[in-house]
UniProtKB/TrEMBL annotation:
Annotated protein name in UniProt: Uncharacterized protein
GO-annotated cellular components: efflux pump complex
Species classification: Bacteria, Pseudomonadati, Pseudomonadota, Alphaproteobacteria, PS1 clade
Organism the protein comes from: alpha proteobacterium IMCC14465
InterPro entries cross-referenced by the UniProt entry: MdtA-like_BSH (IPR058625), MdtA-like_HH (IPR058624), RND_pump_MFP (IPR006143)
Limits of the Multidrug resistance protein MdtA-like alpha-helical hairpin domain: 138-207
Length: 402
């Protein structure tokens, strides 16, 4: 490298400097002695600048390369689509009651089935309260009723006899009226005592507490020997034969359903109860919709009857994934929701891929559900629609589909 520079200096630079020096000398010869030094300095500076310009390396102009973005796409396909709304909810027994004592007394027996988590059949006796006082009350009421009925019988006979005597003119009307009044009083007394007997019989029957329907037992609070009073809590019974699913639809989902159908009552519901690595499916139908919108979650509660549980050993409180179907739509394209863009000026639009570049296209959507958007018009069958979002999205942007 040094040899090349030395050769270059001898062949080109040195002769040029010598020639330039001779030229300067000839130019300075006619000048006075005092003017030669300044002129020499100026000439040397010009020479140095010329050398710098000549030897300065040339820089190449940078031409930026257009950037291409890797994207994901979805192929447009028109057909019949049934939108699905996915939510999460809770299975509840259709009936939950707090079983209570209806009479006071000492608990003398408790069924072996009356314990936490037990299953009891309708009509099964769960516990018994000491019936002694209630048997006595019933016996006394019945005795009073027998006495009152005997008195009523005698009063009726007296009235019938007085009526015959009055017809013969033997007794006055006043006597007949007295017998009639006595008969009415005795009849009312019998009716009252019949009510007393029925009440006493019911109290005696209520000393035995039975299950009103097939149920699972929880919150048991009684045991043998405990004294209970009317309305004391005994246990909680959850209906084992009828269940409901309570789940929530957001404002947008509920509004989308109402905009495309008059009512959602009766719509099919599919639920999955995930237990470990197992999935237990069952079905239902929407029974009713909550009366108000929950302001904490901005949604409305939906309650569905469970119509089929298959082999699922379902229990109240199970957390389930719920899928509710809406009405079917003909000739629509189902796209991922990320494919739809909104603009204040142009409204809804998507980006299709044309010759490797993005092209915006206004579209008309009919519903959003379950992370999908249903498009009625604006794109054609087989077109590729952008589903990736990035800041540089615009018409003409170069993209690449891996």
């Amino acid at each position: 490298m040094l040899a090349k520079l030395e050769d270059f200096w001898k062949r080109y630079v040195s002769p040029a400097l010598l020639g330039f020096a001779r030229l300067i000398y000839r130019l300075l010869s006619p000048l006075p002695q005092k003017a030669r030094l300044p002129v020499s300095i100026i000439g040397g500076s010009v020479l140095f600048y010329a050398l710098m310009v000549v030897t300065n390396p040339k820089t190449k102009t940078f031409e930026p390369r257009e950037e291409s973005w890797n994207i994901t796409v979805h192929e447009v396909s028109y057909g019949t689509t049934i939108p699905e709304f996915t939510s999460y909810g809770e299975v509840m027994a259709a009936r939950n009651i707090f079983l209570r004592a209806l009479v006071a007394g000492e608990v003398v027996s408790v069924s072996d089935a009356l314990h936490e988590g037990a299953f009891v059949k309708k009509g099964a006796e769960l516990l018994s309260i000491d019936p002694f006082e209630y048997e006595n009350a019933l016996g006394e009421a019945k005795a009073q009723l027998v006495s009152a009925e005997a008195s009523l019988k005698m009063s009726r006979q007296d009235y019938e006899r007085a009526q015959k005597l009055f017809e013969k003119g033997t007794v006055a009307l006043r006597y007949l009226d007295e017998r009639k009044t006595d008969l009415t009083v005795k009849k009312a007394s019998v009716d009252r005592l019949k009510i007393v007997v029925r009440r006493a019989q019911r109290n005696l029957d209520n000393t035995k507490v039975v299950a009103p329907f097939d149920a699972y037992v929880s919150n048991v609070t009684v045991d043998e020997g405990r004294l209970v009073n009317p309305n004391d809590h005994i246990a909680r019974l959850s209906d084992a034969s009828s269940y409901e699913i309570r789940f929530n639809l957001s404002d947008n989902e509920y509004g989308a359903l109402l905009s495309t159908q008059s009512d959602i009552v009766g719509q099919p519901v599919y639920a999955v109860w995930k237990i470990g690595n197992k999935e237990l499916p069952f079905e239902g139908k929407v029974k009713y919709v909550g009366a108000t919108i929950d302001t904490s979650i901005r949604g409305v509660d939906v309650i569905a009857d469970v119509t089929s549980i298959g082999t699922a050993p379902i229990r109240g409180g199970a957390f389930v994934e719920v899928v509710m179907q809406g009405n079917s739509f003909e000739n629509v394209a189902s796209l991922p929701e990320d494919a739809l863009f909104s603009d204040n000026m142009d409204g809804e639009m998507v980006y299709v891929i044309t010759n490797g570049r993005l092209k915006s296209r206004p579209v008309k959507s009919v519903m959003r559900a379950g992370g999908r958007v249903l498009i009625a018009e604006g794109v054609t069958q087989g077109e590729m629609v952008l589903t990736t979002r990035f800041e540089e999205i615009a018409d003409g942007v170069l993209v690449n589909i891996p």
